[in-house]
Specification:
Adenine-specific Methyltransferase, domain 2; 7-stranded mixed β-sheet; 18% strand; 37% helix; alpha/beta; single chain; Rossmann fold
Length: 268
């Protein structure tokens, strides 16, 4: 597999570009857990032997499940779909009408690769409404060998879809390495939300802290990265151990990048 890809998908907020700042803080020799897995960049890069991945986005988790179960069918539909604006909107409509399954997973991969900036954005009905994003340069499609490799990796993990607190309480991890990179909420500035009604809120940030303080009693190490904002500093306080610089695309164009600061809290 092309190691530079990291994850099979693009994802808003992915830590691919700041991996060198965060991965040294994580112990991949221990069971590895991500309650907000998104593109699961670190999982795909480090390939831990024992892991649990969760996300509240059902389309995302269903994609991983189908990619694991039937990579040939997912790749075939994805590879056969033309890359043009008309086809993109046609497939987006079909995606929104389908129930979970292999066909929807292949469309998820196609729409992710050729939608605007890797964003999974929905309307109030929960329908994907991310616009076409490959007008100037289309991403090269993944090969079948790459898809097979991702599929084999996913067979070595456990996939869940649900609220992070429920997931962690049901799992009851002990002696694990847990990395959490939740969607951002702050009153300090406008933050783009991509989960519609499930967007992370201030009350969820407090829940995150409460759950984390319980996890350390079971000898877990928890690393949390979050936007540098008043809310995170107020709640996580003395557990904040460092700042990292992350790179973001402005308007979705690689030529208009900016840097932003995030905070890293560590509980152990």
């Amino acid at each position: 597999m092309n190691k530079q890809r990291g994850s099979p998908i693009k994802w808003a907020g992915s830590k691919a570009l700041s991996a060198s700042q965060i991965m040294p803080l994580l112990d991949f020799e221990r069971p590895y857990i991500e309650p907000f897995c998104g593109s699961a960049t670190f999982f795909f890069k480090k390939r831990p032997i024992h892991s649990h991945l969760n996300d509240s986005n059902p389309a995302l988790i269903s994609f991983y499940q189908e990619l694991c179960r039937d990579p040939a069918e997912v790749w075939s539909d994805y590879n056969d779909t033309p890359i043009d604006e008309h086809t993109y909107y046609e497939k987006r409509k079909e995606f929104n009408e389908l129930e979970s399954g292999t066909r929807k997973a292949s469309l998820f991969l196609y729409l992710n690769h050729y939608g605007f900036n890797g964003i999974y954005r929905t309307n109030k009905k929960g329908e994907l409404n991310t616009p076409y994003g490959a007008r100037t340069k289309a991403r090269k499609k993944m090969s079948f060998e790459e898809v097979l490799d991702y599929s084999e990796l996913l067979k070595c993990t456990n996939l869940y879809c649900g609220d992070f607190e429920v997931f962690l309480k049901n799992l009851s991890p002990e002696g694990c390495c847990i990395y959490m990179d939740p969607p951002y909420f702050t009153d300090d500035s406008r933050v783009f939300g991509e989960y519609g009604a499930q967007t992370f809120k201030g009350v969820d940030l407090q829940r995150l802290f409460d759950v984390t303080t319980q996890l350390v009693f079971a000898k877990n190490t928890v690393v949390i990265s979050y936007k540098d904002c008043t809310e995170f500093r107020d709640i996580f306080g003395s557990f904040i151990q460092s700042e990292i610089t992350v790179q973001r695309n402005v308007g979705g164009f690689s030529g208009r990048r900016k840097t932003d600061q995030e905070l890293v809290a560590i509980f152990q």
